[in-house]
Amino acid sequence: MAHTFAELVEKQRAADEAYARVRHLQDAYGPPTQTKWSDQQTTTWETAWRAWRDLARDVQAAVTAYAKQEETPRQEIEARVKEAVRHGEGAGDEA
Predict the structure, then answer these.
(1) Distance between CA 81 and CA 79 in Å, rounded?
(2) Are 16 and 88 in contact (CB under 8 A)?
(3) Which residues contact 95 (CB under 8 A, 6 or more apart)?
(4) Domain that holds residue 47
(5) Which of 22, 32, 73, 84 is the Cys-Cys partner for 89 at CB 3.0 to 4.6 Å?
(6) Would you report the helix, strand and coil content of the chain in percent, each value rounded to 5?
(7) How far is CA 23 from CA 59, 80, 81, in A?
């Protein structure tokens, strides 16, 4: 599956946003070992966690495929993607 660099950046952004949602829910609900979460809170957090996990897995697979396609070390591609996300790049940027 071929990916462009911009697609990798967008996938990473989506994973980062999903992670932020998980962290927000944890902060809002309190530590599960200290605060009794309702069934709804538990379900909401688990759904958010699964979404983040799946998106993160997809990013890793896409970065690996792109690195092979570009014949570039995977760690280099991953670092460039994370740098592009930090600097708001990606849409239309080809690296």
Answers:
(1) 5
(2) no
(3) 5, 80, 84
(4) 5-86
(5) 84
(6) 75, 0, 25
(7) 19, 24, 22
With contact defined as beta carbons under 8 Å apart, do 90 and 13 qualify? yes
Rounded Cα–Cα distance for residues 64 and 24 (Å): 29
Q: Is residue 62 part of a domain?
A: yes
The predicted-structure confidence for 5-36, as pLDDT tens digits, reads as follows: 999 999 999 999 999 999 999 999 998 888 89
What's the number of domains the chain is made of? 1
Instruction: Give the closest residue to 57 by CA, choosing from 6, 15, 16, 1.
Output: 15
Residue 92 lies in a domain: no
Residue 30 resides in a domain: yes
Classify burial at 7, counting beta carbons within 10 Å of its beta carbon; exposed 0-12, middle 13-18, buried 19 or more: middle
Reported pTM: 0.85
In a domain, 57, yes or no: yes
